[in-house]
Design brief:
8 helices, alpha/beta, five-stranded parallel beta sheet, Rossmann fold
Length: 205
């Protein structure tokens, strides 16, 4: 079983990954943030470090895919390779922060990786408005995120919504985190778990 959680910066992916991992006893695969050597540089000088950062994430995510296949265990993944390729990289290209030549090189590499990748059994998308994202980013207090602009978050949100609308790689569960507080409200977490059960096991929704 491979379950993946997607969502914009600050939507609660890592938190929900941990909560569902604990509940279902799934092995969690987290996004490599703390040891990422490019994040600080990227948020301070996006154009200079955009390609380096995206290649780092692409490599990290592809390694996770290989590990998931080799381990043959129940896995829950915090963000996927698809978001790198369909959300973040094209957004950087559209903003003029990644040149056409570099972007096409990136896309070519992703297409090779996708050929040998399998989609998650269930994709959970955490939908959030930008004000809620800003609140969550502020509360968790990561220094390198203080320079993220509202415009950048808005652009990512627009791309997420467009992509999710067209998503056809498997089962999809959308959780509105403006309305569902799975962190502080046990009933809300229970609601999410019930919906996950319904998607995975075909129970009544």
């Amino acid at each position: 079983m491979h379950v993946a959680i997607a969502g914009n910066i600050g939507s609660g992916k890592t938190t929900l990954t941990g909560l569902l991992s604990k509940h279902y006893k799934w092995e969690p695969h987290y996004e490599d943030v703390d040891d990422n050597p490019y994040l600080d540089d990227f948020y301070n000088q996006m154009e200079r470090w955009s390609f380096n950062l995206q290649i780092y994430f692409l490599n990290s995510r592809f390694r996770q895919i290989i590990e998931i296949r080799e381990k043959n265990k129940n896995i829950i993944q915090d963000r996927t390779i698809y978001e790198d390729a369909y959300i973040f990289a094209p957004n950087l290209h559209a903003m003029g922060l990644m040149s056409k030549r570099v972007y096409e090189n990136y896309c070519s590499l992703f297409e090779l990786m996708e050929r040998v990748s399998e989609s998650p059994d269930l994709f959970i998308y955490l939908r959030s408005t930008v004000p809620n994202l800003v609140k969550q980013i502020y509360q968790r207090g990561r220094e390198y995120e203080t320079s993220i602009s509202i415009d950048y978050l808005n652009r990512l949100n627009e791309r997420y919504e467009a992509w999710i609308h067209e998503y056809d790689k498997g089962k999809l569960l959308i959780v509105d985190v403006d309305k569902i507080d799975f962190v502080n409200n046990p009933e809300h977490l229970g609601e999410v778990i019930n919906r996950v059960d319904a998607e995975l096991h075909g129970l009544f929704k």
